[in-house]
Design goal:
Blueprint (H helix, E strand, L loop, with lengths): L13 E8 L3 H17 L4 E6 L3 H7 L5 H9 L2 E6 L14 H11 L4 E7 L12 H4 L3 E7 L11 E5 L2 E5 L6 H17 L3 E6 L5 H14 L6 E6 H10 L6 E4 L1 H14 L7 E5 L5 E5 L16 H13 L4 H16 L2 E2 L9 E2 L2 H11 L1
Parallel strand pairs: 1-2, 1-3, 3-12, 5-10, 8-9, 8-10, 13-14
Antiparallel strand pairs: 4-5, 4-11, 6-7, 11-12
Helix pairs in contact: 1-10, 1-12, 6-7, 8-9, 10-11, 11-12
The protein binds nicotinamide-adenine-dinucleotide.
The site of nicotinamide-adenine-dinucleotide has 22 residues, from helix 4.
């Protein structure tokens, strides 16, 4: 198992499945596609094909992850996704909810490793709700296991026992699931500052005692990485007390869900943060960490930078196009330095722009 270090294929034509989804999804994905198209003109061999996921897929087919989308995503080398969901779909039966589409594509493509960088651009340090000194220079990576844990564990359900309703779920990991995510995290740490913090709740939950035991076993293969452990409640506190103590954090699906959202807010805007979800062969699904933001959908207000940066992660992790990835990331840094701001990151004295104008600025900076 060597997701981050394995040899990359030299693909002649890289196939990207584009699933824009709902709400602001189509608006933000359109800007990332413009960036990919610009690189295409400069010789990047990518081919884009479009499909439906989430609420728009339910509208068209009755299913949030239709067969046709599964075929498209399975045949592609990578998937670029916007976001899914919206109030219109909240009353649908559970199996038809847009979020089920997301869980299904992650599971079906075996995307077990979710990488979420939380990087604070110096230009946006004032957007954080934490003091400048606490967050300035923040650069952490959260590696979250994505296909196991209580979100998928069986048995699960709501039923009547002794005359009253009972709800239950199962937190479960087997050792190979823990081992493969631990490898990804150790390799990520080895490429960064060489520090890995594994987060669990081993004082209460047996499942996470096993997590800790297996992570310690895997650590023997990475003597260059300093491993530490933290209980999840303490980790939630340390992330706001002194976030810069962390380099890479590895944790399970549910703890990772919560901690990665917390880490994202340290940086000021969820409109800035990309993510990658990888399988064992570097095939990946790339998406911004935020949702479909129905409150601002269709108003040209959404920040497209997280999606554009997700496209950069795709070029780096799935296609091994480091130069192209850096070209996008440098362009984003440049537009922030030039003062362009969508509403979510705006400050007095800056240049307010909408979704499309932010895309224009990134293209110009490239
Ligand atoms: P959200 O992330 O959509 O929005 C939270 C807040 O952040 C809103 O005020 C929104 O306007 C703002 N925001 C989000 N992205 C932004 C961007 N790019 N630019 C500017 N502002 C942005 O979370 P929510 O409101 O809790 O959920 C809305 C819908 O999205 C729900 O249906 C939820 O289930 C779904 N959702 C989907 C995903 C996903 O597709 N990965 C993730 C989370 C939530």
């Amino acid at each position: 198992m060597a997701v981050l270090l394995s040899d990359f294929k030299n693909l002649s034509m890289m196939k990207i499945a584009v699933l824009s989804g709902d709400g602001i999804g189509p608006e933000i994905v359109a800007q990332a596609v413009r960036v990919l198209d610009a690189l295409k003109k400069d010789g990047l061999a990518v081919e884009l094909e479009y499909g439906l996921i989430g609420g728009c897929a339910v509208d068209a087919t009755g299913k949030p992850y239709p067969e046709a989308t599964h075929r498209l995503a399975s045949q592609a080398d990578a998937v670029l996704l916007g976001a899914v969901g919206g109030p219109r779909y909240d009353t649908l039966p559970r199996h038809q909810r847009p979020e089920r589409g997301l869980l299904a594509i992650r599971k079906e493509l075996n995307l077990f490793a979710n990488l979420r960088p939380a990087l604070l651009y110096p230009e946006l340090a004032n957007a954080s709700s934490l003091k400048y000194d606490v967050v300035a220079g923040l650069d952490i990576m959260i590696v979250r296991e994505l296909t196991g844990d209580i979100y998928f564990g069986e048995p699960r359900g709501i039923e009547v026992r002794d005359g009253q309703r009972v709800g239950y779920n199962t937190m479960i990991y087997n050792e190979s699931e823990i081992r493969r995510i631990a490898h990804v995290a150790f390799q990520a740490a080895a490429k960064r500052q060489g520090r890995l913090c594994s987060v669990d709740k081993m004082n209460v939950l047996e499942c996470t005692q096993l997590w800790r035991d297996v992570v310690i076993e895997v650590a023997k293969e990475y003597p260059q990485v300093a491993l530490s452990h933290m209980l999840v409640d303490n980790a939630a506190m340390q992330l706001v007390r002194n976030p810069k103590q962390f380099d890479v954090i590895v944790t399970g699906n549910m703890f990772g869900d919560i901690l990665s959202d917390e880490a994202s807010m340290l940086t000021g805007s969820i409109g800035m943060l990309p993510s990658a979800s990888l399988d064992e062969n570097n095939k990946g699904l790339y998406e911004p960490i935020h949702g479909s933001a129905p409150d601002i959908a269709g108003k040209d207000l959404a920040n497209p930078l997280a999606t554009i940066l997700s496209a950069a992660m795709m070029l780096r992790y799935t296609f091994n196009q480091e130069e192209a990835a850096q070209r996008i990331e440098s362009a984003v840094k440049k537009v922030l330095a030039q003062g362009f701001r969508t509403k979510d990151i705006d400050e007095p004295g800056m240049k307010p722009v909408g979704t499309k104008a932010m895309g224009d600025a990134v293209l110009a900076a490239m």
